Structure prediction request, 592 residues.
Amino acid sequence: MKKIVECIPNFSEGRDIGKISHIVEAAKTVEGVSLIDFHSDADHNRSVLTLIGPPKAVSEAAYRLIEKAAELIDIKKHEGVHPFIGAVDVIPFVPLKGMDMKETVELARSLGDRIAHDLKIPVYLYGEAALHPERKNLADVRRGGFGKLAEEIKSKERHPDYGEAKLHERAGAVAVGARDFLIAFNVNLETKDLTIAHDIAKSIREKHGGLPGVKAIGVPLQSKGIVQVSINITEHRKTGLYDVMSFIKDRADELEVKVRSSEIVGLIPKDAIFPKIREYLNLEDFSERKILNSYL
Amino acid sequence: MKKIVECIPNFSEGRDIGKISHIVEAAKTVEGVSLIDFHSDADHNRSVLTLIGPPKAVSEAAYRLIEKAAELIDIKKHEGVHPFIGAVDVIPFVPLKGMDMKETVELARSLGDRIAHDLKIPVYLYGEAALHPERKNLADVRRGGFGKLAEEIKSKERHPDYGEAKLHERAGAVAVGARDFLIAFNVNLETKDLTIAHDIAKSIREKHGGLPGVKAIGVPLQSKGIVQVSINITEHRKTGLYDVMSFIKDRADELEVKVRSSEIVGLIPKDAIFPKIREYLNLEDFSERKILNSYL
Prediction:
């Protein structure tokens, strides 16, 4: 079976269209790699690509992207509401077809090694690719962001997995990892009050007793004059998009705030949507095979 | 652009697995034709295939299917809750890609002509392929079912469009047509009371002030000891599956009856589902392109 891996590089530029397109174009120069989604946000000041294809080709595309980003982005000047540690902040790999997590871990580590060696950017391995248990969780790797990492990189605790304990002049550092599928889902609220986004983010988080497999933060979207709950769902079979939206709508009602809109960053697996359709329609059976457009 | 047509033959056998599989196999012998859905029901005593492929190949598959059905089914002995006039009751064609309705009408008429000439089965043209305005509506072509048609076929009003005014000994008659996409959606109710299915069917019908583009009948499902509202949605952009289910659930609540389950016969276009997902999730944008599985 042909191996297919997904890679979702997040880079720290969401405003300058010229830079963004040059960086994206660099990833597109590798044959066999498909760019299947692209999401850019001015407030997050961040862009997210979804690449799929054969492992080697996708890894090469990620390498070319980080090479170009290191050239065009100066992370010391970066401002954005999303946490970050580098010009290319995070490069996750997800096994999609014909390959297991072990192989995906090897792919991530091998790219990390190459980035540290050739580009002199310090690399932190996270998720399943982590070499240290305390780096499994990306939020821990990124804790305190770029500023904190600049202070602490020489400490033993924060020594990079690959490369020297010295941030790259322009690109900072990068987290490279392997993980299972994850849904990034942002919900925009009709208010400027950031405490409301924080409140809802806290209540929906698994670790504060919210929904299974949900991480969330509240961030301001200054360009729109509103706030956002930015969510990751790591267990989409337990918690689907409807569950998240229902939860947020209920909590927003209590706080007398309206939901303005939502957005999916990257892609979702069908299991995040279809079981709820089946449930609501009481369907005996439902899958994408029942949707005519799947065949055209 | 490669032309693709859909054909959804309905034949009057939903119980005898041996006969059903022989009839389905006959349609599958044509190269280039894909059988993308199959639905069989014992109470309706009817099976529905969804075939797609190039126009000539799909027409040939439909021909082979009716030839085999005429051999294996004796319509005089047929019993089932669904209205019918023949062994193969209805053969609708739907233009999917690279072809317009005019071409689809020609395809339907040409198959009809061949069926009447070679198989001696009288053919009624309906939908966009109708030669008479009073035969546009399939329900009018089928009014009174096989029994009534047997009495009236010699009348001027019911003279077949192709073939002689004489039912085929085993196969009866067949309606061949061209139409736009249609959704067949059945909702099963937790009651044996047929008047409740009739009541709900009536209230949801467009012509009785229900939902746009909805036709419905109430039928008993003796094998399950329940009743069913059997629905056709002809305007899925106006009335989606959620609208139908919400309507029925509300009416069922009023009548103190529960919805047991539902089923989609054949396929649905994404527009019957996705706009509601977008609406409920307040998504700025949503399509099958956001579903990862579409790429695998």
In short: Chain A has two domains: 4-178, 183-289.
